[in-house]
Amino acid sequence: MDYNTDSAPYLSLFAALSYGGASMAMVFINKAVLMQYAHSMTLLTLQQLMTTLLIRFGRVMGYTKARGLNILTAKKLIFVSLFYNANVAFALASLKGVNIPMYIAIKRLTPLAVLIAGFFSGKGRPTTQVILSVLLTAAGVLIAALGDFSFDLFGYSMAFTSVFFQTMYLVLVEKSGAEDGLSSVEIMYYNSFLSLPFLLFLIVATGEFPASMSMLFAKSISQSFLMVLLLSLVMGIVLNYTMFLCTIVNSALTTTIVGVLKGVGSTTLGFFLLGGVQVHGLNVMGLVINTMGGVWYSFAKYQQKKKKSKLPRVMSDADIDRR
């Protein structure tokens, strides 16, 4: 299916809204699970296992046209998958000790990390607006952290490590172009399948297994926990699918902007849902500054993209084939 056609204008809007909604919901669902079940690596392993089995079942039953595994494609995606899962694993670990507004604020540091990585890899200098917006975002995190009475060093460390791995993931995807020509379902399948050996090794090496499974069985008597856990597993699939779909149908820029706008809503709701936030003027001011920086960054990148699209260019054979 060709997503990049003008025949389906509503698909772009649907993809963006779906990703925004799924992303916002996933933060709160994961937080709710981790408040009762602290084994974040096991949770991620279960999410990826569920994704692999569901896509495999759909392919066997003919519900999806996703192609089977290809060794060459798998080799291209192996490190992409490892960095992606490292990002998610550390993000889940951070949610155990960091409240949702601060978690979202720290994750907004990813553009700053990408700019720094781009500088060392020889990329061109970004626009002044982009530089100022990411610096404002970083300043907001610093101010908010100073006013965070629930400061958790481990949680903060995990969140910053997650930002590092997310940056490496984005840079690697951009450099490799390994996801070209793959559908969103196929990317999900490769990502989840390739991550399983790595995740299984980690839960054994870190000592989560078998204690995590014993705890899981013990908590299975609680229907409310089982419902939240099942919702987490399902939403893990939905989030991955809508993220890849939004990127394919629209662009990576659109996915970034949707993520920032989603963060505004999540930050606001985070003060009222699931607790863990001790309101302080410095903390609130820092989060507001951080959010303003995030929105400014999205606006600056949109303007940059718009200017580039107006520049005349010679179409390559690949561009002609796509049209």
Automatic annotation (TrEMBL):
Any one annotated GO CC term: membrane
The keyword Membrane appears for this protein: yes
Subcellular location: Membrane
Residue span, Sugar phosphate transporter domain: 22-298
Primary subcellular site in the record, as a coarse category: membrane
Membrane topology, record value: Multi-pass membrane protein
Lineage: superkingdom: Eukaryota
Keyword Transmembrane recorded: yes
Transmembrane segments: 7-29, 35-57, 77-94, 100-120, 127-147, 153-172, 193-218, 224-245, 252-274, 280-300
Keywords noted in UniProt: Membrane, Transmembrane, Transmembrane helix
Protein name according to UniProt: Sugar phosphate transporter domain-containing protein
Source species of the chain: Buddleja alternifolia
